[in-house]
Specification:
The structure is a single chain. This protein is mostly beta strands. The two termini are 38 Å apart.
């Protein structure tokens, strides 16, 4: 990372800066919203890794296969890891196989998660403040008690079957369970007005920021789900028909939030570390349902196809208004507990956006111009389907306070609507 244009971050009027506490009047310098990277943000880091992999399979009998895999890797910046997998397949009949596996896994923290550094302006509930995302090795991160990032570890198990009841039809169903420990996420924003360790407040004052956040091994999660694949291939007239149905049904639980001791002095501080808004983002990253149906017909050089994709319902929380009481009657920061005032009487209601399930249809046509060249035209999201508006029930006046600046979040189906395309495909 390199420093940006000086005018994008520099303060050319030193009289407009932090005063001495309690007078902390501040006018942000440089480009507002997302100023350029400062010289203090510059970093040049790298990693190297050396690894060894081994995989062996053995037919115990003609019907019973066992597989074993091992993986060893050493990372220059965070150390050694070893992982294992045991898998098996049993042929119960000529067209029915039962299979299962157990394994461990890992994901090294990325160079960006370790090194990223940035200062920017945020607006929440009408309050403007400067935020610092501090790198993992920064003094401000150490003052917050955030340990060095370590690998995410997982334990995985699956069991399922493949079945071919007819030559044209194949069915595969697999259930899975995945437990991940020490997932790396970006923490919430800690205010220097919070009951923080004095060393952390001092570090924030030195950087001229009101809020700070950090990447940390913050959360443990468990996923449970079922994957479904049904494929049908049939000669039809002079051509051939292919139908493919895919589906996923799953759930995710947050098992534990790993709050550092220095950020756990009060309930509000603990809630700041991974706010319920951010928890809901994690859970919404694994929608409970998604299905897809692809129908394609090929005859000679011509192809016609359609895709139907169902995006299941998800729920996302907003920031809250920063002042609302919760239902226990106590005063809490709205961005922690996500409440906004109701339109009719101002009572606190949950700042929750429900995005209902949507069915999206794609249509495409193709023609093989030559052995190596094909042309395609079509439309994605043919009927211009959009996600629901992100509006908290009973609090429509707060519909435009979410992260994207309008009543839409970055939901999986996207918000762009119909897309027409034409393309050439070249194979070699």
């Amino acid at each position: 990372m390199f420093a940006g244009e000086e005018a994008s971050f520099n303060n050319f009027n030193p009289t407009k800066s932090f005063g001495t506490p309690p007078d902390l009047t501040y006018v942000a310098a440089g480009a507002q919203g997302f100023p350029g990277f400062q010289p203090g943000d510059e970093v040049n880091d790298n990693r190297s890794t050396i690894g060894a992999y081994a995989d062996a399979e053995l037919d115990i009998t003609k019907r019973f296969l066992v597989g074993l895999a091992v993986r060893f890797e050493n990372y220059s910046d965070f150390g050694f890891t070893h992982n294992y997998k045991l898998a098996t397949r049993v042929k119960l009949s000529g067209n029915f196989n039962l299979r299962g596996s157990v394994s461990t896994g890992f994901r090294a923290p990325s160079l960006q998660q370790i090194n990223f550094s940035s200062s920017f302006t945020t607006v929440q509930g009408g309050t403007i403040a400067e935020v610092k995302i501090a790198p993992n090795y920064s003094p401000i991160t150490k003052a917050a008690g955030i340990p060095e990032l370590k690998q995410e570890k997982s334990v995985n198990a699956s069991i399922g079957f493949t079945w071919k009841p007819t030559p044209e039809l194949g069915i595969t169903i697999d259930g899975y369970w995945v437990r991940i420990k020490d997932r790396v996420v970006l923490s919430g924003q800690f205010s220097r007005d919070d009951d923080l360790d004095p060393a952390l407040i001092s570090a924030m004052n030195q950087l001229n920021v009101s809020l700070a956040q950090f990447f940390a091994n913050a959360v443990n999660t468990t996923n449970r789900g079922v994957d479904i694949v049904i494929e049908y291939n049939k000669k039809l007239g002079k051509g051939s028909l292919r139908a493919l149905l895919t589906g996923n049904i799953q759930s995710m639980d947050i098992d534990k939030i790993n709050v550092p001791a220095r950020l756990n002095a009060s309930a509000d501080l603990a809630a700041t570390f991974l706010t319920e808004r951010e928890q809901q983002f994690i859970l919404s990253s694994a929608p409970k349902t998604k299905f897809g149906l692809n129908l394609e017909y090929n005859v000679g050089k011509f192809t016609a196809g359609t895709r139907l994709t169902y995006f299941g319902k998800i729920e996302i929380l907003g920031y809250g208004d920063g002042t609302s009481d919760d239902f226990t009657g106590g005063f809490h920061r709205g961005d922690l507990y996500a409440y906004v005032p109701a339109d009719d009487d101002g009572r606190p209601v949950k700042d929750k956006y429900v995005y209902g399930g949507k069915l999206v249809n794609d249509l495409y046509f193709g023609y093989k111009l030559s052995e190596n060249l094909s042309a395609f035209i079509g439309a994605d999201n043919l009927f211009n389907v959009h996600p629901d508006l992100g509006i908290a029930p009973g609090a429509r006046f707060w519909a435009f306070n979410n992260e994207t600046g309008g009543p839409w979040d970055a939901v999986q189906m996207g918000g762009n609507g119909i897309r027409l395309f034409a393309r050439l495909g070249f194979t070699f």
